[in-house]
Amino acid sequence: MKVQRDPRFLKAFVAVLVGGLALPWSVGEIARRLGPPDLSALQTASTFALDRNGALLRAFAAPDGRWRLPVKADDVDPKFFVLLKAYEDKRFERHPGVDALALARALWQYATHGRALSGGSTLTMQAARLLEPRGPHTFAAKLKQIYRAAQLEARFSKKEILEIYLALAPYGGNVEGLRAASLAWFGKEPRRLTTGEAALLVALPQAPEARRPDHAPARARAARDRVIDRALAAHALGAEEARRARAEPIPLRQSFPNLAAQVTDQLVKTHPERRVWRLAYDARLQSSLEELARRKCARLGEKLAAAIIVIDNANGHVLAHVGGADYFAKERAGALDMARALRSPGSTLKPFIYAAAFSDGLAHPETLLDDSPARYGLWRPVNFDDAFHGAVTARKALQTSLNLPAAQLLNEVGPARLLARLRSAGLDLKLPKDSDVGLAIGLGGVGARLIDLTRAYAAFPREGVAPDLVESLDDPPKPENRRLTEPASAWQIADILRGAPPPDNGAAGRIAFKTGTSYGYRDALAIGFDRAHTIGVWVGRPDNAPVPGLIGRQVAAPILFDAFARVGGANDPVPRPANVLEARNSADLPPPLRHLRRGPKTIAATFGHPIRIFYPPEGARIDLGLSHGETTELSLKAQGGAPPFVWTVNGAPIDGASPRHEARWKPDGAGFARVSVIDANGASDSVNVRLE
């Protein structure tokens, strides 16, 4: 601490020294006159978001414009405190807030050298100064620091005093506090500092602007090395560790974490009063996938963006939410959250069509479908390759994403019914303005959000139940029953999609996935899952402009497989539920399931009435004594239709084909059940009941 030579210096400095020596006898009177210390600066912190493990995702400047983050001494690398005390305050643990020996030494140095070669301020005095409004360095201010230091020592433990210093020490510009500085200069939490990094952070607060590494790297290095030299002289460091610390580079720019920026922007905008957000994300994975999106889009084109969603299937936690390829890239509209933007889903809705058909007993993965020209009113769908493939199994049709079989199945399921089912499961689909619900919705003629699509796909590895997504750990959603399909049909879709041909960078059979490409090459999508995770990827231009060659399989699928590689894990398949109808080909199926027959599903000329379930009725609650451990069978009755009949419950057949309109089924427990019957012509009827 340099001071100017002044005739009044000796007298004033002696007063400071005497005041410090008198502190043990005068603390009470000083506290009465000055009042308690002002701790309001500790309450003015940045708004920030943490990941599931407490790691920082992103922070916003505090209301006073400074970056200030809370920090505890236990969260700081111990070597930082070793260096700090060796450089600033060797007797910190023993003095009462003022080090009389240090003050006397500073006075003697001034008297003999004309300036103080070592400072007299303790860490407690520096903490006291940081709590006060900034002002000139006068002797009156020094006296006040001494008195405030005594107050702090009387009120707080040594550890708490250190935490005040750690929270408020200046580190250049608008960065305050050790945690903010460690993140800004080294991109890491202070618990993982190297010796050289810790030494630099010890040196900066003494002259934060003059020693800023990005403005004056030579001064920063010299100041850091002085800290290392003093610690070496005090035997706080060994010679080899000191040598390695001096060899460490000086950071030349700040690198403050800015993860999940699109999401946190919206959170702060919606809840400006909130200061801390605890999110379900994994900061490591979030950072890795943001880098993946940025790198891939840099190769694809300057105006392309990407979005990635990762869901933990076990609990619905969103582990990563990448809203764009580069938050700061204006040409990519980086500030927009494209994971929540309404875009065309392309062919990614096809698995839900097949799941509905399987669940309703209309088809099986080995059912033969007719891939030939067809017209539905004025609409005539065509395949992506403009070719026709004749009779194909439902499995092959979905794996190769044929449009004509999907339209054929949707015509049987009913587009309005499918839309209602998807919406009830949480997939908020938007129809174009002034349009009706038609078959085109199955091929992408509807608006959807990537995060909703990914959530719906997560139903397949969860026995048909879509999870309640959790992004904020502080505000978990209320659990809801979001059943999208039955367990048997969910597994059948998973089994089919696991056999889809992978992109060039992927291995076959590792994950179940489906791609999609919107009309005009505006959106490329790929959504996949294994037993543990579901991941959705979107690529396109935020301005919705077409991009020739933007095809889901070629653009989005490679990103999907890279994302799964970064998530890690064994890519275990979805477990097979019991009572799934097995078949190697269509010949192994009951006759009504071997082919999906086009045209009306009744034979009124022969039997006069379509097939209909007479008992149980739709929505019935049936007491079979299941809650008491009884095993009463449920009677099933149908009317009309053409024999033989096949009954299924939750997609699993009951025995085989029968000429009778009646059947009996023994449930394995209470709950909801979907009962279906199919006649010889493929006509069917279904009801949902609750068994108790």
Automatic annotation (TrEMBL):
The keyword Hydrolase applies. GO terms for biological process: peptidoglycan biosynthetic process; proteolysis. Residues 307-524 form the Penicillin-binding protein transpeptidase domain. Pfam families: BiPBP_C, Transgly, Transpeptidase. Residues 605-689 form the Penicillin-binding C-terminal domain. The keyword Protease applies. GO terms for cellular component: outer membrane-bounded periplasmic space. Residues 64-230 form the Glycosyl transferase family domain. Pathway: Cell wall biogenesis; peptidoglycan biosynthesis. GO terms for molecular function: carboxypeptidase activity; penicillin binding; peptidoglycan glycosyltransferase activity. It catalyses: [GlcNAc-(1->4)-Mur2Ac(oyl-L-Ala-gamma-D-Glu-L-Lys-D-Ala-D-Ala)](n)-di-trans,octa-cis-undecaprenyl diphosphate + beta-D-GlcNAc-(1->4)-Mur2Ac(oyl-L-Ala-gamma-D-Glu-L-Lys-D-Ala-D-Ala)-di-trans,octa-cis-undecaprenyl diphosphate = [GlcNAc-(1->4)-Mur2Ac(oyl-L-Ala-gamma-D-Glu-L-Lys-D-Ala-D-Ala)](n+1)-di-trans,octa-cis-undecaprenyl diphosphate + di-trans,octa-cis-undecaprenyl diphosphate + H(+). Keywords: Carboxypeptidase, Glycosyltransferase, Hydrolase, Multifunctional enzyme, Protease, Transferase. InterPro entries: Beta-lactam/transpept-like (IPR012338), Glyco_trans_51 (IPR001264), Glycosyltr_51/Transpeptidase (IPR050396), Lysozyme-like_dom_sf (IPR023346), PBP_1c (IPR011815), PBP_C (IPR009647), PBP_transglycosylase (IPR036950), PCN-bd_Tpept (IPR001460). Its EC number is 2.4.99.28. In the C-terminal section; belongs to the transpeptidase family. In the N-terminal section; belongs to the glycosyltransferase 51 family. NCBIfam families: PBP_1c. PANTHER family: BINDING PROTEIN TRANSPEPTIDASE, PUTATIVE-RELATED, PENICILLIN-BINDING PROTEIN 1C. This is peptidoglycan glycosyltransferase.
